Batch of 2 targets.
Target 1
Amino acid sequence: MNKHFHFSRFWLLLKVDFLKGQRATLMTVAVILGIMTIGTVVEPLLDDNKIIHAENFAYGLFIGGFILSSQAFSSLSNSLKGFQYLTLPASTFEKLLSMWLLTCIGWMVVYTLAYWVCSPLINLTAQLSSSSVVIVSFNPFSGFVILALKFYFVLQGIFLVGAVHLKGYVLPKTLFALVLYGILGMLIFYLFLGDMMNSEVEQALADINFSIPTLDLLRIVLEWIFWWFFAPLCWIITFLGLKEKEV
Amino acid sequence: MIEIERLSFGYKKKPLLFEHLDISMPSGNIYGLLGKNGAGKSTLLKLITGLLFPKQGKLQVVGFQPKDRRPQFLQEVYLATEEFYLPPMKIAQFVQLYSPFYPRFSHAAFQGYIEEFQLPLKQKLSSLSYGQKKKFLLSFGLATDCKLLILDEPTNGLDIPSKSQFRKVVTSAIHEDRSFIISTHQIRDMENLIDPIIIMDEGKVVFFQDYEQISQKLTISRQTTLPDEDILVYAAAGLGGYQVVTKNIEQTETNLSLELLFQAVVNNTTKINEIFNSL
């Protein structure tokens, strides 16, 4: 039997994690779609008498998904639940994979399906509340929806990191850490690279043709890092945190 | 079964609790782990189950390093703690979900324990009483047939008939490839059940002997006057005399009182060591 992954053992773990998390997932879906259905009564008044499903879908996807991901390893915040979770005979890799499948792929599939099923109801509510409302219907395969799903796929990893490394109030703490790191990053950028953008250096850079192709290249590299490296990096940090967890 | 060599461990920002700890525990025994509060019993159990990691030294349990928490290791070690969480599901559902993680789980044995403890299969675990939950955890742990079953204060919260049932099921479930470690303060519940006896004090194993050795070396008796100091290990004043632990110089058989033995070890460790280290 493989020490890191064995399918039948993983399947058992997935069943356990699914049963433990199904109520929270269903409640999250219900609350988000409920808010959206009720929200359609007021939304046309606020937004040019228009309902753009893809945008609403994206809000719900991120908010619900990040809440669920922050709860992924909630057992670890409680020492009684924590020792049971850590001594359950499954590998750290299987435990991570199971949670990732449920909170990332699982959430994307369940939420997209639920939204697709509920969108006619949302449309009906909107039409009943305002006959002149314009509805941009929901297409799960539209470019915007696919892009939102791709962003969720990448960014969700941050909340898995928070779920393993932080104890209690994971979502606010993760968001706070993100803001803090964001400010820190900007500060470092300003302190070290800000000077480079000053007149003399700027002039020098202009002279050596630090121009649009160079900036484009930088953007492409950063985008490539974001799409291909960011999520795996988060998964590795989550894995290491889970492996080194003590109760 | 368990090999601990020169193990050191301490909690963050605190002095080391264990320093160069050495213990060897072969299989086939019901070990009794005794000690005062803060002696390090629970920490040792957590180290053995891989919930805490040693700072230094070697720790091997059923052929694995607990720190790695490999599934094959976790299948062989079951920890039933004093305080625990059980999910809000029925016993049958819990067993259906969790038993497949343990390859040698015996449903027949589990059924037997459940009947012995008269636990309601169809009731939700969360609605059971503390004692019933404890009996359920014990039944599940025993039925896993894991090589090492660790029970932390197993008789706390059990009524008098349940304590007898506990002794009965534990005795019936032990075999030569299996070991139990019972950590407890309820030492009267453990008499004639645990053997060998391990006593910890301030992060050290101050006593590790089996019944045979203890009865060869010590005598526990009731006396009206205190015996000679050179053979006296510990005395507790009682009604009309003393309960004394003395060196067994006449090789007489004795009825072991764990409570007195524990007091003797903790209060006169030096003399106990002298007696047990002498040929």
Target 2
Amino acid sequence: MAADRFARSRGVFERAVRVIPGGIYGTKSPGFLIPGKFPYYIESASGSRIVDADGNVFVDYLCGFGSQIVGYGNPAVERAGSERSARGDLLNQPSPLMVDLAERLVSRIRGMDWTVFAKNGTDATTLAVSLARVHTGKRVVIAAEGAYHGAANWCSSNLFPELAPDRADVAFFRYNDLDGLEALFRWHRGNVACVILTPHHHPAFRPQVLPDPELYPTVLRLCEAEDALFVMDDIRDGFRLHPEGSHVRFGAEPDLVCVAKALANGWPLAALLGTERVRSAADSFFITGTYWMSGAPMAAALACLDEMDRLGGVARMEALGTALKEGLEAAGREAGFGARVSGPAAVPFLTFDEDPDLYLNQRFCGAMADRGFFLHPHHNWFVSLAHTEADIAATVEAAREVFAEMKAGRV
Amino acid sequence: MRPFLDDLTAAELRVLARIRLAVTARLVAAAASRDPALAELSSRNFRLTLRVPGLPRAVVACLEGRVSAWAGGEAPALRLPADLTLLFPSARDCCRVLDGAPGRVLPIPGGLGAGRALRFFRAAAAAAPRILKSPDTPPAVRAELLLEAAVSALIETAAEDSYVRPRLEHAPDGTVVVDAGENVRRALRKEGTRLQLVPMPGTATGPGAGPKDGVGAEAAVRSGADRPGEGRGNPARTDAVRIDAILAFRDPAAAVAVLSGKKPAVTALGACEASIRGLVPLVQGLFAVLDRASRYLAVQAEKEARHGR
């Protein structure tokens, strides 16, 4: 019974609600998953497996919301981070590692000339938008509807009237609607500081969308004409779509690039990279945070970059993701479902053509969780370098059983 | 929002007055079938209007022994003359009187049923809270009354309170079924910032009517209507009204806790006392309104009330 399966998780949650608003807040809230089908608390993890508070084991396709790229507890990354931590992590001044990592990133992420470090993706996107405003002397930020750029007030879903001034100068267009984007630029002519986009569109609760071939050329043209900046929010896709930055995969030419999540395989680290053009704004901007220059995550990041390359990098994740996509779609078709995997192969998400309300997603992902596969019903998934061909095959086989049970009405 | 009437802004007072009008009208109508004395008082037809200048009126009508309520500007009955109008000169008076505090209310007779309407209203207004509080009231009955009140409060809050508008606009449109357990259900349609009651899929009756006659949303889900080849994936697609999401409570007690604002919905979800199926963001949009409506419902007419006056 599901209720017994997560007894400890639910017990901890009952304690949590007394001392933590909502028990678990934000994207980890049980309500974002399917309560009763997924664990609330994870106790440990290794490679592609997570073990929840009740001892249930899952093959994990959420990967710490994308932060795990070379596998949970990757020995090389953990060793590097732990050794640095043992010698001192958060110090008065940064360790020399900071420069090592900055050099690595600047040489790796195509088109970028400098970098600064922070902790969360929100830090990086918010800093990028601030720098764009300072650099251009303008206020308006253009973003795609439904895109996630973090939890700061300028971009979050905390739509409280008291916070409205924080997002007053953020304008939205429908993703890939080039005419709509042009119209926004016309409407805000002379006031646009930047466009911020994720490499591909990955809204929650909806199928993912790849960029129209004309999207990035249009963005470049409009930004040049307006003297606005283009910010690539590569936090979720980073290092899974192209080793030199996801913008390279789509031929985009951003002025600023935000990375986090996979950068240090789960060690807390974000980075904002920029072109020479924006350096003076960054030079003059007060950028700081108590933990932003701690050394251990930087050591972990350096090791993580090495591990990504050693383990096969983007090409391997692409191959694994393609096998998963093709296997799931075929299994769905066999049972008569319009199961469709959208997005890049390494950042997939399954939806059902016949069910935009996601009832089928919930049934499918809930039944997969029963079988030990953590596939989020409402948020895109991630493939990592710790996944194996055997993991993918087992996932597809389980999916085939689940589709058959769904067809028979047993799930 | 401040917890006392005297501290509310004029805009908040308007919202609260709309909520009080709607909740009162719907509760007295719902109480009619739960109390034998009320059944006797509703044996003959009458039409009662509750009115605050500048706000949509609420109507309670008894026709052939069946008492129904409308509020927020809905309903065909609004075009018909009222036997009795209870006119509250201001939103503040409305909020005070309907909370049991002193305030101005002008009874304006308009038809032969004025006396019957007034007697019924007085009795029903006293009976509804008594039924809600009585330990003898079955949980399902309490849940039904509270669901009635909560849905009314949601609709009126969404219609009048600018505070919730951005969050409601952000949520997708669609129809959500709130299932309080024990066959107590309501279907709400959200379009833009507007919420309205719609018939439960499978019923031919009007808004707010006959939830027990409806096709259970969960039952529809479980019926396998979303099997391939038997529909289009969404159980509601086989009905006239498409159900985009289902907020289901484990039992009436769980529903009561959330709908009365005593337990946050996110906590109930985590405790598996409630579940959401289908279009989750649609229900999340309703939660934003529910949070706000709960604050309005908790407003007290007088500060002394806090001390148990």
